[in-house]
Inverse folding.
């Protein structure tokens, strides 16, 4: 008959209970910091793709129907992931806002795959020589704040511009201060409506950036929206991932014996 293996001797309790508790606490803190480190190196594009995948998987509608396509109240996963169309989509939304509010002179155009410029002249938001927003422009600020808080927008650059007319009878000694104060007024209006302060940048441009052949647009406010970058490499990788891998029909001859 095989001999029974002896049971291992029980581990003695630690004599110093405080040291054991301290060691257990350190192990838990180590595991916690390892978890934080693993979360800190997550690639933003992959995180958004994962969110979109989960939104489509757990949607209560069949096949992850999308709200933007008019198929029901599902999470707009495709709109979050597809960053290449965000600038054009946002420019169109801003143009629709101007039409709905009956604002003439406001323009929004997609500069490239990562940015959109919004431009509106002085008469839309300010009285001549003043830095306080007109009451009639508050509805516009409400609409802009909703668009600027979208997850694909990562930066809102607010620029104040003036003409070269000397400032007289004002508390601002030059056009630089006047343009910066107007940009700050827009900043505060958007901040009060939920746009994160860390997402916004304010700049006073003075009269150094006039628009050729359009002197009436020198006194203006421009807002540059920056979006999550979409590179050609990422677009090509998506196409490659959808196509089956190419393999040669005949393998290359090996060198040597």
């Amino acid at each position: 008959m095989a001999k029974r293996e002896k049971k291992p001797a029980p581990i003695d309790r630690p004599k110093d209970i405080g040291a054991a508790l301290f060691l257990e606490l350190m192990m838990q803190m180590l595991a916690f910091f390892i978890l934080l480190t693993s979360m800190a190196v997550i690639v933003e594009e992959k995180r958004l793709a994962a969110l979109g995948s989960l939104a489509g998987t757990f949607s209560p509608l069949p096949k992850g129907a999308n709200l933007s396509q008019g198929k029901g109240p599902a999470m707009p996963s495709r709109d979050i992931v597809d960053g290449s169309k965000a600038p054009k989509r946002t420019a169109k939304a801003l143009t629709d806002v101007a039409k709905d509010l009956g604002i003439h002179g406001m323009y929004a155009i997609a500069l490239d795959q990562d940015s959109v410029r919004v431009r509106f002249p002085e008469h839309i938001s300010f009285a001549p020589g003043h830095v306080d927003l007109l009451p009639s422009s508050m509805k516009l600020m409400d609409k802009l704040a909703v668009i600027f808080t979208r997850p694909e927008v990562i930066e809102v650059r607010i620029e104040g511009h003036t003409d070269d007319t000397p400032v007289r009878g004002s508390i601002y000694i030059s056009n630089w201060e006047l343009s910066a104060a107007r940009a700050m007024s827009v900043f505060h209006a958007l901040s009060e409506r939920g746009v994160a302060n860390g997402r916004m940048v304010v700049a006073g441009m003075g009269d150094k950036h006039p628009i050729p052949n359009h002197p009436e647009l020198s006194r203006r406010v421009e807002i540059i929206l920056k979006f999550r970058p979409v590179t050609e490499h990422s677009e090509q990788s998506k196409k490659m991932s959808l196509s089956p891998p190419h393999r040669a029909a005949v393998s290359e001859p090996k060198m040597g014996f």
Notes: The helical segments are 17-40, 44-57, 77-81, 86-101, 122-125, 138-148, 175-192, 232-242. The beta strands are 107-110, 115-121, 153-161, 200-206, 220-227.
